[in-house]
Amino acid sequence: MARKTGSNGEKTRAAVEEAAIRLIARHGFAAVSMRQIAREVGVQAGALYLYTPDKQSLLFDIMRGHMEHLLASWEAEAPDPATPAVARLERLVRFHIDYHIHRPEKVFISYMELRNLEPDNFAEIERLRRAYEGVLEDILRAGAADGVFHMEDARITTMAMIAMLTGVSTWYRDSGRLQPAAIAAHYVDMAFRLVGGARIAQAAE
């Protein structure tokens, strides 16, 4: 995204992106105009082009930023690759739930607005998505090789598990009866059931 220099410019750029996220998540990309985004931010429509070339670029920047931050956040928390697969799977599930549960609008946009990306932008987002999917698939394959996970197709299981985990962002509410940590614990159990494995404490028994 084109950026205007200076702290005020950075604040406005961030406000433009935040407004676009709110509006696109609420109304859909096709229904949102640059004029609406400008009105939400409180600037003239022409001023938006100081911060983004067009609406397509704005959507792409939102989706790319989401995926790059997701990958960087996992990299900062990921256990050593030599860690047993059961421990790595539990860590990834807890991370995924904690990350996605607090970002429902970005998650919604990242999945529902893929169809509105131009081909080159779509290819880049798909590359980032596959990089994250590859993290889980590598864990599942390692667990299968060690005999602790049992599945017929690691790729299909990976996609099914990610869909299950990401779904938390569609129904979680702060006012619900369970806190995020408790929800994550339930998802860990479901993830291990999906791969026919036992969690660390159960395996130790």
Automatic annotation (TrEMBL):
The keyword Mitochondrion does not apply. SUPFAM superfamilies: Homeodomain-like, Tetracyclin repressor-like, C-terminal domain. It comes from the Bacteria. Residues 33-52 bind DNA. GO terms for molecular function: DNA-binding transcription factor activity; transcription cis-regulatory region binding. PROSITE patterns: HTH_TETR_2. Keywords: DNA-binding, Transcription, Transcription regulation. This is TetR family transcriptional regulator. It comes from Pontivivens ytuae. The keyword Flavoprotein does not apply. InterPro entries: Homeodomain-like_sf (IPR009057), HTH-type_TetR-like_transc_reg (IPR050109), HTH_TetR (IPR001647), KstR2_TetR_C (IPR041490), Tet_transcr_reg_TetR-rel_C_sf (IPR036271). Residues 10-70 form the HTH tetR-type domain.
